[in-house]
Amino acid sequence: MCGIAGELSFDGSPADAAAVARMCDTMVSRGPDGNGLWASGRIALGHRRLKIIDLSDKAAQPMVDPELGLTVVFNGCIYNYRELRDELSKAGYRFFSHSDTEVIGKAYHRWGTACVERFYGMFAFAVAERDTGTVVLGRDRLGIKPLYLAETPGRLRFASTLPALLAAGRDGGTDGTLDTSIDPVALHHYLSFHSVVPAPRTILAGVRKLPPATVRVIKADGSSTEHRYWAPEHTRREEYAGMSAQDWSDEVLATLRRAVRRRMVADVPVGVLLSGGIDSSVVVALLAEEGQHGLRTFSVGFEAAAGESGDEFAYSDIVAQHFETDHQKIMVPSERLLPSVDRAIAAMSEPMVSHDCVAFYLLSGEVSKSVTVVQSGQGADEVFAGYDWYPPLAAIPRDDAVDAYTKVFVDRPHAELATILEPERLLDHDASREYVAEHFAAVGADSTLDAALRLDSSIMLVDDPVKRVDNMTMAWGLEARVPFLDHELVELAAACPAELKMAQGGKGVLKHACRGVVPDAIIDRPKGYFPVPAIRHLSGGFLERVREAVTAPAAKSRGLIRIDYLERMLAAPNENRTTLGSNALWQVALLEMWLQERGIG
Question: Which residues pair with 271 in a beta bridge?
Answer without folding.
Answer: 374
